[in-house]
Protein backbone atom coordinates (compact mmCIF):
# COMPACT_ATOMS: atom_id res chain seq x y z
CA UNK A 1 0.00 0.00 0.00
CA UNK A 2 2.90 2.37 0.70
CA UNK A 3 4.20 1.91 -2.86
CA UNK A 4 0.91 3.10 -4.30
CA UNK A 5 1.25 6.59 -2.74
CA UNK A 6 5.05 6.93 -2.82
CA UNK A 7 5.10 9.43 -5.70
CA UNK A 8 2.63 11.87 -4.14
CA UNK A 9 4.24 14.85 -2.49
CA UNK A 10 1.10 16.58 -1.26
CA UNK A 11 1.18 20.27 -0.32
CA UNK A 12 4.99 20.23 -0.08
CA UNK A 13 5.21 19.32 -3.75
CA UNK A 14 2.55 21.83 -4.74
CA UNK A 15 4.32 24.83 -3.18
CA UNK A 16 7.83 23.84 -4.28
CA UNK A 17 8.84 26.80 -6.51
CA UNK A 18 11.76 24.98 -8.15
CA UNK A 19 9.64 22.15 -9.47
CA UNK A 20 7.70 23.99 -12.15
CA UNK A 21 9.78 27.01 -12.99
CA UNK A 22 9.19 30.74 -13.18
CA UNK A 23 5.48 30.59 -13.93
CA UNK A 24 4.82 28.74 -10.65
CA UNK A 25 6.86 31.34 -8.72
CA UNK A 26 4.84 34.13 -10.40
CA UNK A 27 1.62 32.25 -9.55
CA UNK A 28 2.48 32.06 -5.85
CA UNK A 29 3.79 35.64 -5.68
CA UNK A 30 0.55 36.86 -7.28
CA UNK A 31 -1.56 34.99 -4.71
CA UNK A 32 0.57 36.00 -1.72
CA UNK A 33 0.75 39.64 -2.77
CA UNK A 34 -3.02 39.69 -3.23
CA UNK A 35 -3.57 38.30 0.27
CA UNK A 36 -1.02 40.73 1.69
CA UNK A 37 -2.73 43.68 0.03
CA UNK A 38 -6.09 42.49 1.35
CA UNK A 39 -4.65 42.32 4.87
CA UNK A 40 -3.20 45.82 4.44
CA UNK A 41 -6.55 47.16 3.21
CA UNK A 42 -8.35 45.76 6.26
CA UNK A 43 -5.67 47.16 8.59
CA UNK A 44 -5.76 50.52 6.84
CA UNK A 45 -9.54 50.74 7.19
CA UNK A 46 -9.22 49.91 10.90
CA UNK A 47 -6.43 52.46 11.36
CA UNK A 48 -8.33 55.19 9.56
CA UNK A 49 -11.52 54.49 11.52
CA UNK A 50 -9.76 55.31 14.80
CA UNK A 51 -10.22 58.99 13.99
CA UNK A 52 -13.84 58.52 15.07
CA UNK A 53 -12.59 57.89 18.64
CA UNK A 54 -11.01 61.32 18.89
CA UNK A 55 -7.69 63.02 18.28
CA UNK A 56 -5.88 61.16 21.09
CA UNK A 57 -6.82 57.74 19.67
CA UNK A 58 -5.81 58.88 16.18
CA UNK A 59 -2.41 60.12 17.37
CA UNK A 60 -1.89 56.89 19.33
CA UNK A 61 -2.56 54.81 16.20
CA UNK A 62 -0.27 57.00 14.09
CA UNK A 63 2.53 56.55 16.62
CA UNK A 64 2.36 52.80 15.92
CA UNK A 65 2.69 53.27 12.17
CA UNK A 66 5.53 55.80 12.38
CA UNK A 67 8.01 53.26 13.77
CA UNK A 68 10.70 51.40 11.82
CA UNK A 69 8.46 48.33 11.87
CA UNK A 70 5.59 50.34 10.43
CA UNK A 71 7.86 51.74 7.74
CA UNK A 72 9.06 48.22 6.89
CA UNK A 73 5.44 47.10 6.46
CA UNK A 74 4.84 50.05 4.13
CA UNK A 75 7.92 49.16 2.07
CA UNK A 76 6.61 45.59 1.71
CA UNK A 77 3.17 46.91 0.72
CA UNK A 78 4.78 49.09 -1.96
CA UNK A 79 6.58 46.04 -3.39
CA UNK A 80 3.47 43.87 -3.25
CA UNK A 81 1.38 46.54 -4.95
CA UNK A 82 3.82 47.12 -7.80
CA UNK A 83 4.41 43.40 -8.44
CA UNK A 84 0.72 42.53 -8.21
CA UNK A 85 -0.16 45.31 -10.65
CA UNK A 86 2.58 44.48 -13.17
CA UNK A 87 1.96 40.74 -13.12
CA UNK A 88 -1.80 41.30 -13.25
CA UNK A 89 -1.44 43.41 -16.39
CA UNK A 90 0.70 40.65 -17.92
CA UNK A 91 -1.97 38.08 -17.08
CA UNK A 92 -4.79 40.20 -18.53
CA UNK A 93 -2.87 40.75 -21.76
CA UNK A 94 -1.98 37.07 -22.11
CA UNK A 95 -5.58 36.01 -21.34
CA UNK A 96 -6.58 38.20 -24.28
CA UNK A 97 -4.22 36.20 -26.49
CA UNK A 98 -1.58 38.90 -26.96
CA UNK A 99 2.09 38.03 -26.57
CA UNK A 100 1.42 34.34 -26.19
CA UNK A 101 2.46 33.23 -29.66
CA UNK A 102 1.09 30.48 -31.85
CA UNK A 103 0.75 26.99 -30.44
CA UNK A 104 3.20 24.52 -31.88
CA UNK A 105 3.22 20.80 -32.42
CA UNK A 106 4.25 19.10 -29.19
CA UNK A 107 7.39 17.17 -30.04
CA UNK A 108 9.80 15.28 -27.89
CA UNK A 109 11.68 16.49 -25.84
CA UNK A 110 8.80 18.46 -24.35
CA UNK A 111 9.45 21.89 -22.86
CA UNK A 112 8.53 22.10 -19.20
CA UNK A 113 7.44 25.73 -19.34
CA UNK A 114 4.44 27.21 -21.07
CA UNK A 115 5.96 30.68 -21.01
CA UNK A 116 7.64 32.26 -24.01
CA UNK A 117 10.41 34.84 -23.80
CA UNK A 118 7.97 37.78 -23.70
CA UNK A 119 6.09 36.29 -20.76
CA UNK A 120 9.33 35.57 -18.87
CA UNK A 121 10.56 39.10 -19.51
CA UNK A 122 7.30 40.57 -18.18
CA UNK A 123 7.61 38.55 -14.96
CA UNK A 124 11.21 39.65 -14.43
CA UNK A 125 10.30 43.28 -15.21
CA UNK A 126 7.49 43.11 -12.64
CA UNK A 127 9.91 41.76 -10.03
CA UNK A 128 12.53 44.39 -10.90
CA UNK A 129 10.02 47.24 -10.77
CA UNK A 130 8.79 46.02 -7.39
CA UNK A 131 12.37 45.91 -6.09
CA UNK A 132 13.09 49.42 -7.38
CA UNK A 133 9.88 50.78 -5.88
CA UNK A 134 10.74 49.14 -2.54
CA UNK A 135 14.21 50.69 -2.58
CA UNK A 136 12.76 54.12 -3.39
CA UNK A 137 10.11 53.74 -0.69
CA UNK A 138 12.71 52.66 1.85
CA UNK A 139 14.81 55.69 0.95
CA UNK A 140 11.86 58.02 1.48
CA UNK A 141 10.58 56.40 4.67
CA UNK A 142 13.89 55.70 6.39
CA UNK A 143 15.70 58.76 5.03
CA UNK A 144 18.83 58.56 2.91
List keywords for this structure.
mainly alpha, 144 residues
pLDDT < 50 runs, ≥5 residues: none
| First and last CA, distance | 62 Å
Helix and strand composition category:
mainly alpha
Question: How large, in whole angstroms, is the Cα Rg?
Answer: 21 Å
Please summarize the sheet with the most strands: none
Q: How much helical structure, as a percent, in the residues?
A: over 70%
Q: What fraction strand?
A: under 5%
Structure characterization notes:
The protein has 144 residues and is mainly α. It contains six helices and no strands. The protein has helices at residues 11-14, 17-20, 22-49, 55-65, 68-95, 117-142. The termini are far apart.
Lay out the secondary structure.
Elements: H1 11-14, H2 17-20, H3 22-49, H4 55-65, H5 68-95, H6 117-142
Helix pairs in contact: 3-5, 5-6
Give a short summary of the structure:
This protein is mainly α and 144 residues long. 70% of the residues lie in helices and 0% in strands.
Amino acid sequence: MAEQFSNREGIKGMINPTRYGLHRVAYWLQRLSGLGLLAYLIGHIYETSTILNGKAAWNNMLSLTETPGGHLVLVLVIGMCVFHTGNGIRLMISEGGKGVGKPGQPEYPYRASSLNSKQRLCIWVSIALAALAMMYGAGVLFGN
